[in-house]
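Board notes, transcribed. Complex of a protein with D-xylitol-5-phosphate.
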Amino acid sequence: MTIDRSIKIAPSILSADFANFGQEIQAIEAQGADWVHVDVMDGHFVPNLTFGPALCAAIRPHIKTVMDVHLMIAPVDPYIDAYAQAGADILTAHLEAGPHTHRTLQAIRAAGCKAGLALNPGTPVEAAVPLLDLCDLVCVMTVNPGFGGQSFIQSQVEQVRRLRALIGDRPVHIEIDGGVDPKTAQAVIDAGADVLVAGSAVFRGGSVDNPSVYGDNMRAIRDACTVVWA
Ligand code: DX5
Ligand code: ZN
């Protein structure tokens, strides 16, 4: 099985106008977003609180592309069905969120979603090896999860390179999350990533009344990546 390894930009709505998600999503998709990234935080696994399943269900009708839900919650398993029913296409859970990630990935697929595995910067990518056959995506965190607008952790580029080799020809996306901008994007694409989550770097300077800035911001990231892993 092959997958689309072209560069995909997934704006994180953590940086959108929280009073206006519907229009914000329509604006970023009209301006070229490939996926919509939804950061779910529980104030426990990470020190911030964001979106429950009801919010996800409410924004789902506005998403025409892919609803990419990043669960920064522990425990994960009791909430998988709720986020699946809210319409997630991809549900990504953290390896660090509990002792039974193998079961979690199975449960995500059983709920009808693509399964993603996220790795914090302190986790060696080799820890994902026993789980790769259960993954449709591995998300390499390039910040410590919890907040938008943090600085990209450069040492993660080498981890992406090693992960790319470990994945081999499995149909697994590599997603990068945190501090992605036109300056940091190329190194992770060269290292083998194909999905770039970006919050601040997409929403900065734009609004639903001035959406072309979103397009310019996404183009700047894409244009910075001249080499595509093949
Ligand atoms: C961090 C989140 C990210 C975040 C990215 O915990 O998982 O998706 O919103 O934001 P930027 O692009 O601003 O680093
Ligand atoms: Zn995220």
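The first helix runs from residue 21 to 30. Helices lie at 21-30, 53-59, 80-85, 101-110, 156-167, 185-191, 200-203, 212-224.
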